[in-house]
Write a structure and sequence with these properties.
By secondary structure, the chain is α+β, with helices and mostly antiparallel strands. The protein is built from nine helices and 13 strands. A hairpin with a 3-residue loop joins strand 2 and strand 3. The radius of gyration is 33 Å and the shape is elongated.
Length: about 375
């Protein structure tokens, strides 16, 4: 029973010389062409043999009579894809060339030229419409907050193949136009062109695209699993300061919520809300017996430390812009950057250190210096 082997194509079929040379070299290794797909060529394992391959462009499928004429000349049809038909012949037959007039072959390239031109226009319009639909992302006020969300990876995973296909369509059109020009000047196709570098590049690109597509499908499920694992944690299990760290006395009617998220750029993301009451000093009108205390924390651990500054700026833009008190930068060697604002009842802290970024909004009686010291202690800064 014969075995089939799939291999990435070194390039598009319109690159005759490169593909013909590759098919011949595979035959020398005992791999004989069977069929051609979008990315792969399928070979059948057999005995090594010196074989010539030629690619013909035919506007219509050849009839049995035409195929019989090819066979009489020593050429057998082994594979085809769209208008491209691949014929093979053992070298010992010394079969005559299918194309002996480069100028005549140049006219057959007109079909390829016309088809690639249509493809290039269609892909360009599709690519342009996609870019326009995503154009608003370029004007995001908070690009780093967008980047750390899983949707950003999905967008990149879609854009990269778009860009690759777009560039390839233009490159292919220009290359075919150049080949056609050479043929019309009487320069024949080189049937033994070097293909190894093109093959390596093709493998790298296709493996990358396959991996990207796989990640596109896998990461949403992985994110859900991670979210399920972390959502049921308590505040004590999370590397953030809590109300119990800040308030010295007991906290009553305590409640909290924890939201966890994950992405490739920021594998750990927490949004935590804590509320409660602490004992105050009773006033004559029976007010002030209890004071409300609350803390909102947004905590991020980044895979790329280099984006921490951008993320911190985005957090400031989003959560400080409606705050009346002045935001000041605090010089503290334990932090990469540290900003704070303090007003009546509310205190804001924006900090970055190592690969971590944190935003805290606290409502209570503790002062800023004390909260900052708790952050230093929590992270051993």
């Amino acid at each position: 029973m014969s075995k089939s082997v799939k291999k990435f194509m070194p390039g598009d079929l319109w690159d005759f010389g490169k593909n013909e040379s590759w098919f011949s070299d595979m035959a020398l290794k005992g791999l004989h062409l069977q069929s051609i797909g979008s990315w792969f060529a399928v070979f059948e394992k057999g005995q090594p043999q010196k074989t010539k391959y030629r690619i013909e462009v035919l506007e219509e499928s050849p009839s049995q009579e035409q195929l019989e004429l090819y066979r009489e000349c020593g050429w057998d049809l082994v594979a085809n894809k769209q208008m491209f038909y691949v014929f093979s012949s053992p070298e010992e037959l010394n079969a005559p060339e299918l194309q002996t007039d480069p100028m005549e072959q140049g006219f057959t390239f007109k079909m390829i030229d016309r088809q690639l031109k249509k493809n290039m226009i269609a892909i360009s319009l599709l690519f342009l419409s996609f870019l326009l639909s995503q154009f608003h992302l370029s004007f995001q006020d908070e690009p780093y907050l967008f980047l750390i969300k899983q949707r950003a990876f999905t967008l990149v995973a879609i854009i990269v193949p778009y860009i690759y296909i777009f560039i390839e369509s233009i490159r292919g059109y220009l290359a075919v136009k150049k080949t056609r020009g050479s043929l019309l000047m009487g320069i024949p196709i080189n049937h033994k062109r070097k293909w190894k570098l093109s093959y390596i590049i093709s493998v790298i690109i296709h493996v990358y695209l396959i991996g990207l597509i796989a990640l596109l499908f896998i990461t949403p499920f992985y994110a859900v699993m991670r979210r399920e694992t972390y959502t049921y944690k308590t505040v004590e299990d999370i590397p953030v300061i809590s109300i119990y760290d800040i308030e010295k006395g007991p906290v009553y009617d305590y409640s909290h919520s924890i939201d966890y998220d994950w992405s490739l750029v920021s594998p750990v993301q927490y949004i935590i809300y804590e509320d409660g009451y602490i004992e105050g000093q009773m006033q004559g009108d029976f007010s002030g017996a209890y004071f409300k205390t609350s803390i909102q924390t947004r905590y991020y651990e980044l895979a790329l430390r280099g984006i921490s500054e951008g993320l911190l700026n985005d957090l400031i833009h989003r959560y400080y812009r409606h705050y009346e008190e002045k935001l000041i930068e605090i010089e503290n060697e334990r932090f990469d950057r540290l900003y704070a604002a303090s007003g009546e009842g509310n205190k804001l802290i924006f900090a970055s250190f190592d690969n971590k970024v944190i935003y805290i909004k606290y409502s209570g009686k503790a002062d800023l210096d004390y909260i900052i010291s708790l952050i230093e202690k929590k992270y051993n800064l």
